[in-house]
Design brief:
Distance between the termini of chain A: 39 Å
Radius of gyration of chain B: 20 Å
Number of helices of chain A: 6
Order of helices and strands of chain A: HHHEHEHEEHE
Oligomer: heterodimer
Structural class of chain B: alpha+beta
Largest sheet of chain B: 4 strands, antiparallel
Largest interface: A-B, 81 and 89 residues
Strand order of the largest sheet of chain A: 3-4-2-5
Strand order of the largest sheet of chain B: 3-4-2-5
Order of helices and strands of chain B: HHHEHEHEEHEEH
Number of strands of chain B: 6
Structural class of chain A: alpha+beta
Chain lengths: ~170, ~160
C-alpha cells in the first residue's frame, strides 16, 4: 500500500485462527472495527490490519465488503444449472460459461454415477424465473449447447444462508 | 421487502468489495459517498438488521480457507422439512436450499480440514439414514457472488 507500512506480520497460529473466527462473523459496526477486533484478540490494531492485508494479498480473502443476501433484496430466482459434459471438454466449457455475464458461479464437480451424471455446475441469479430461463436459452443458443444434457434446479426455499465458518471455534 | 434509498444502494454498489483496511474505514467510505461516518454506520447496521446484508466483512476463498463441499440428499416430500432441520443442526452447514429435483436438499458443509469434514458427513449420513451425494469442487471457473445488483429490475419486476 505505502512505503511506511511495516512488513506483513506473521501471527501465532492460534492468534491467527482466533482472529479469523471473529472476522468470519463480520466486522463490528463501530468507527474503529479493526481496533475492536484487536482488543478481542489481545493484539495491536496495526497487526490486525496487516494480517487482513496479507490474507488479501495471499488470496485467502477474495473480497472484503458488504455481503449481500440476494434473497432479501428480491433476487429470488436462483437456478443451479448442471451439465453432463464430456471430460475432455469440461474445462473449456467451464471457462466459456463463466465468461457469460449472467453466470454468477461456475464449478467443475465429480459425477456420482449412476445417481448423478452432471459434472459442471453454474448458477444464474435473477429477479424472476422467466428471465433466468430466457438468459439460459440465450446461452444455450449462443454457445451451441442444444445437445448438451443439462438440468435446471431452481431453489424453492432457503433453509439456511450464511457465510462460511471454517475455524474450529464454532460450536455444533 | 426492505425499501432502500439512494445512499443504501450506493453503499452496496460501491462496497461489495474494496472496503478499506484503515483505522476508520467507514469514515473513508462516507467521504467517497458524500456522507458521514455516523450515517454509514447507521445504514450498515440497519441493512444487517433487515438481513439485506449477511455481514460486512471478508469472503474467504473456500478452496484455501478450509474444507468445504456441496452435498445433496433426496428426502421424501413428507419428511423434507424435518430432514432439512437435521441438516441445519449438523456442524458447519452454512447453506441449505430446497431445489427442484429428486435430490431436493442441497447444502454446503464446511470444516477446518478434510478429515473433520468427512467425519461430519459420515455422522450426518448415519443420523439421516440416507445417502449423501458428495460433490466437492474440483475446479472453480468463476467463484464470486459480488455481482452488480439489478436495481431497475427489482423496482419494476
Amino acid at each position: 500500500m505505502n512505503a511506511r507500512q511495516p512488513a506483513p506480520v506473521r501471527l501465532e497460529p492460534l492468534a491467527e485462527r482466533r482472529l479469523r473466527a471473529l472476522v468470519e462473523q463480520g466486522l463490528p459496526l463501530v468507527p474503529r472495527p479493526w481496533q475492536a477486533l484487536a482488543e478481542q484478540c489481545g493484539l495491536p490494531e496495526e497487526t490486525v490490519m496487516a494480517c487482513m492485508r496479507r490474507w488479501q494479498a495471499e488470496g485467502l480473502v477474495k473480497r472484503l465488503g458488504l455481503v449481500v443476501r440476494h434473497r432479501s433484496l428480491g433476487i429470488t430466482a436462483n437456478a443451479m444449472v448442471v451439465w453432463d459434459v464430456p471430460d475432455a471438454e469440461v474445462a473449456e466449457l467451464g471457462r466459456r460459461l463463466s465468461a457469460e455475464p449472467v453466470v454468477t458461479l461456475c464449478y467443475r464437480r465429480p459425477r456420482r454415477l449412476p445417481d448423478w451424471p452432471y459434472n459442471l455446475f453454474c448458477m444464474i441469479h435473477g429477479t424472476r424465473r422467466e428471465r433466468v430461463l430466457a438468459a439460459l436459452d440465450e446461452i444455450i443458443e449462443g454457445q451451441a449447447l442444444q445437445a448438451m444434457p443439462h438440468r435446471v434446479l431452481f431453489s424453492l426455499k432457503a433453509y439456511r444462508q450464511r457465510g462460511g465458518r471454517y475455524t474450529a471455534e464454532e460450536r455444533p | 421487502m426492505a425499501t432502500l434509498d439512494s445512499l443504501d444502494r450506493r453503499l452496496i454498489d460501491a462496497y461489495q468489495r474494496g472496503l478499506p483496511v484503515c483505522e476508520r474505514p467507514f469514515a473513508a467510505m462516507a467521504a467517497r459517498l458524500g456522507s458521514s461516518e455516523a450515517e454509514v454506520l447507521k445504514r450498515l447496521t440497519r441493512l444487517e438488521r433487515l438481513e439485506v446484508l449477511s455481514r460486512v466483512g471478508p469472503v474467504f476463498d473456500h478452496a484455501r480457507a478450509g474444507a468445504s463441499l456441496l452435498a445433496a440428499v433426496a428426502a421424501p416430500e413428507a419428511q423434507r422439512d424435518a430432514v432439512a432441520e437435521v441438516i441445519n443442526r449438523a456442524p458447519g452447514v452454512n447453506h441449505n436450499y430446497l431445489r427442484e429435483h429428486d435430490f431436493n436438499l442441497w447444502f454446503v458443509m464446511t470444516a477446518p480440514d478434510e478429515a473433520v469434514l468427512d467425519a461430519r458427513l459420515d455422522a450426518l449420513e448415519a443420523e439421516l439414514g440416507r445417502e449423501i451425494l458428495r460433490l466437492p469442487m474440483l475446479e472453480g471457473f468463476h467463484i464470486d457472488l459480488g455481482f452488480p445488483i439489478p436495481w431497475d429490475e427489482l423496482e419494476a419486476p
